[in-house]
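Per reviewer request, we include the raw input and output of the structure prediction for the construct analysed in the revised manuscript.
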Amino acid sequence: MAVTDKPLAWLHGEVRTPPFSAAARVEAGVLLRRLQRGETIPLPHSRPMPAIGKACHELRVRDENKTWRIVYHLDADAIVILEVFAKTTQQTPASVIKTCKARLKLYASI
């Protein structure tokens, strides 16, 4: 990791094989590494999640038979991972949004 790279702060979830396929785990790693280097990742790989908070986004990682989401917050000094889950519907579940908001609030208070 270069001196200017932001660290990943995992508040919840992980990217392991299984349940991620090896290819999906590599794709997630590449996307997270790009974020650490300060790149902005556009659609279709990342989209803003203003319902969770300012500077919150979700990464989309397609797998063999499901699509994974990694909800993250771009903090000044870290990429904060709020949740990792398999998305099964068009909308992000309200429970995931609520959980991410709570984790972000907890992180901000530290």
